[in-house]
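Can anyone check this?
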Amino acid sequence: MSQFIESIKVEDQELFLLEFHQKRVNETFAHFGKEGSIDLAKIFKNLEHDEDGLYKMRLIYDLDKRFRTQMIPYAIPEIQDFQLVENNSYDYSFKFEDRKELEKMKMKSKAEEIIIVKNNHITDTSFSNILFQKGKDWFTPTTYLLNGVQRQNLLKKKKIKEAEITMQNIKGYSHFQLINALNDFDDMFIYPIDKIINLPGSDDYLDI
């Protein structure tokens, strides 16, 4: 049976973006024809986590409502370089625990992290959604692989906008940053666009 994963930010004993995580879990159960769901707030309460600081609550669950949890201290990673990797068939519309295909793409690349290109469109990294800066505005691709909780949150708050970001226009953006449940907007490393080692026009363009 398929297993799914949620990584939830816990800071100073408080769960973040719970509404969006619970909605995603509920939608996963509903999509696969299962009644009911699991209650994330109740699961967290039963953990009796009483440590301050930043943690990742890692929850792996299946459609029979079996689950296991880990509470992992978290630090935002700084990444040295990125590579565009083309994969026109990859699908990650649900947050499956199985990440073999993602890891395979990373193993083949020459950079620390990958940015997946699907049908000429920018999607996500192996672990996050991505934002691109043009002027003072930040944009996220309409062609995401997974509609992440932080992405939904920032769009709802109108802090970011959606845009069609392709291999033709990516060089029109100056910087980018990664967002996910643990990495907030403007709360992390912002990278110049040339941290992507194989931008269109470069010697290494899509050479994997």
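Reply from J.R.: I decoded it. The two ends are 33 Å apart (CA to CA).
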